[in-house]
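Consider a typical record:
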Amino acid sequence: MKNLIIIFSWSLILLFSIGCKKKTIDLGNKISFESQENISYGNDSEQKMDLYIPSNLNYKPDVFLFIHGGGWRSGNKSQLTFFALSMMQKFPKAIFANINYRLASTTHFAIPNQTDDISSAIEHLEKTLNYKPRFVLLGNSAGGHLSMLYAYKFDKDKKVKAVINIVGPSDLADSGFKKYFDYAFVEKHLINPKVLSSGTSMTSFISPVKWINTTSAPTLSYYGKNDQVIPMSQKVILDSILDKNGIFHESFGFKGGHLDWDKENNSSFLITKIDQFLKQVDKK
């Protein structure tokens, strides 16, 4: 990943600073993508996506939908741009969409806005591509949480082929996660209480593991062994419930903390495992 950053950083700066809507990104080895940045998929200024489509596309590929982290109230799609480029090297025939979503604040709840934004992005892509692709949701941290929550709870039409969860909280009632430094914000502002049905607690509704059943999407997870934000207990809980429901899944730990998953060795390992995992999903 480090080498990719060195090779393409200047070309990307040029690409994204000159204001042209469409450009070709040449990744070598006869791999190229047509890119378009800051596409509006909704009426809000935060509802933007960057889209990467293989050049000379004459087939109907799956779509990777990237969802950034940032504690639900910060972050930007640009944080995943270089990882997307690394993934494009491994999956040259796939389409990639990298989204921003409406950020939470003390006056704006994360849920349902952010899961609605995933739905809107999917609908926009279906209209833009003029077919109904299968989606692989890939998110880190809060984006991992949103990827799981959307796939397990809100994907009624089963458009999600698989989830790639990177350091995402799976059970927000876990005592280990309650040590999260911003847990007070989670309790007060993660979900609009108006969407809670009678008898449903906040932590139950927004915990992805509470919505897992026997038809849930296959899931690959990646957690840091020294993560001080998302403890390894989140991996253990998620694996246990996926096992109980017979869902195909894999999970791995990496050396490092919450932000170390995209270091070169860790990211290379992850991309290899994603490739292997999705090949297994396709066989099932």
